[in-house]
Specification:
The protein is an all-beta fold. It is built from no helices and 11 strands.
Amino acid sequence: QVQLVESGGGLVQAGDSLRLTCAASGHTFGSYSMAWFRQAPGKEREFVSAVSWNGLNTHYADSVKGRFTISRDNAKNTVYLQMNSLKPEDTAVYYCACRRRIYYPTSNSPDEYDSWGQGTQVTVSS
């Protein structure tokens, strides 16, 4: 079992930056692909970014490409999402997710992820 705890959300202005952190428990964290999703009020959960188990492959939604950067530190069981040039449309609850299949590649489907954090609110004002 992997438990995930997100932090780093907050209220910022358009153009500002935030870094989200996802702390994971479990000794096999370094074998799993990880991802960030987000959900705005009244909308479905959507893919934001994912990183492979070894950190070598990353993927981004078109809406955040060039502004967000995902990374991981397997020694610290942590995944990060650096968000720059934030826009009001980035406002959502951001969730960290773990695909608990050893060495499986990333996916942009929430159905492929087995463990989820409780989410952290990001609000961007215009």
